[in-house]
Design a protein that fits this description.
This protein is of the alpha+beta class. It is built from 3 helices and 6 strands; from the N terminus they run αβαβαββββ.
Length: 96
């Protein structure tokens, strides 16, 4: 079995993610770059005890950054959009 803590790295909370959550029951997570859709689905179902309808992933390329005359690059990362079946919610995202 896979460990959800190694697949799901961070919940992403932004204006777009909040709108998706309210309108389409979709949650956004930062995930391990080598995780596939099936592993992400199983990790979410195991960690939050919900049923997943669909998973979409996107690779985000790291930006080039400068510190004075030195240039570096941020790491590439992957994000996952997770749509849940109706009547399922992840309590982590619920506001008071």
């Amino acid at each position: 079995m896979i460990d959800p803590g190694k697949v799901l790295l961070q919940a992403l909370i932004s204006e777009k993610a909040t709108t998706l959550q309210e309108q389409a029951n979709c949650y956004v997570f930062r995930v391990a770059i080598d995780a596939n859709k099936l592993e992400i689905k199983h990790a979410v179902e195991k960690a939050f005890n919900v049923k997943v309808k669909n998973v979409a992933t996107a690779r985000v390329m790291g930006k080039n950054k400068r510190m004075g005359r030195f240039e570096g690059k941020r790491s590439d990362w992957k994000k996952a959009f997770i749509w849940l079946k109706p009547d399922n919610k992840i309590e982590l995202f619920e506001t008071v």
